Amino acid sequence: MTAPLSGIRVIDLTTVAMGPLAGQWLGDLGADVIKVEAPGGDSTRQTGPSIEPGMAALFFGTNRNKRSIVLDLKCEAQRDALLKLVDGADVFMHNIRPQKLARLGLGADALQARNPRLVYAGLHGFGEAGPYGGKPAYDDIIQGLSGCADLMRRQGGEPRYFPTVTADKTTGLIAALAIVAALAGRAASGRGSVVEVPMFECMAAFNLVEHLYGHQFEPPISSTGYARALSRHRRPFKTLDGYICMMPYTDAHWRDFFQEAGADELLADPRFASIALRTAHIDELYEIASSLLVNKRSADWLAACERLGIPAASIQSLEQLLSDPHLREVGFFSMLHDPAIGAVRMPGVPVLFNGERPKVTLPPRLGEHGRQILLESGIDAEAAERLLETGS
What we know:
The protein starts with 8 loop residues before the first strand and ends with a helix. It has 2 domains: 9-206 and 362-390, Rossmann fold; 237-314, 2-Layer Sandwich (formyl-coa transferase, domain 3). The chain has helices spanning 18-28, 57-62, 76-87, 98-103, 108-114, 139-145, 148-156, 166-189, 199-211, 227-230, 251-260, 275-280, 282-293, 298-308, 318-321, 325-329, 370-376, 381-390, and strands spanning 9-12, 32-37, 66-70, 91-94, 119-124, 194-198, 237-238, 243-246, 312-314, 334-338, 342-346. The chain is α/β, with parallel strands linked by helices. Helices cover 42% and strands 12% of the residues. 34% of the residues are buried.
């Protein structure tokens, strides 16, 4: 298949999780993503279990479908090599303070003067124009500031982080979307643009989709927080022999569930007569549902929900995902082989194009493609070898 971003070249200076994930999305969609690393490499090369030094698990999760070159941007000759790469690129993306890049001659104005078609994307913790601009930011910090930890407090009684790097992953996806939108705009205008993607603003937008709630209106007509999502009872339901995830949603779903559970008296309960009333009494509704579900086995409830068309599923561990029959049937996982590392399981690109799933490649070793990339940029073979061996 010809991937949608085939022919697009991305120069990716990002590190850790959010930026590399955005670059990985672009690579998944067919772009040639050149990961430019400092001599020590991205810190995630050392994060998590590994078989080979510099090729750790977290690096595998955010850097597939890329090539790697090592350039020390403090060295003038290596900065010049980067500029040669920029001249032939479509996208330049980074998560470095703009002031620092400007001092190195790598600011947006300088690079777009060389390459007017360049999409220049800065991935930051905070928008540069605000009082938080330039402050350091990692996933935990953004989860705290953007309301994630407080949402956990409102539901469970104490502030906690989501047990996943939500801010990194969400912002990485938004960054990839924004860059693709900028490329689409360039196709119409012929000129590149400057894209700013701040984690804090992205996560504020993420959380306020449902949780702005009554403050959607001015003056507010109720508190913030979508009641159903915040209910302390919103969790897998305990059954006679385990747990299931079940979500009756429509009037018909709840009517059929009450009848199946032998609770016909609840059919006329005014608290549960409509979605608005159920939302207003969500804690009571979930408590009642819990008391009904505990009387039968999980398999019996899942069979009943299947018959009645009520959304329901069992709980799976992360390990069980690896053998999930649906993921197996759709070909989600790929097993790749590396001569040094051996077999490597890679999650697939989750989207299909014309019925085909884009292929995935192993993340690159540090500097693995340096010579090839320099030659492609127009640097002659002798100069490329000198740059790689001596740095000048």
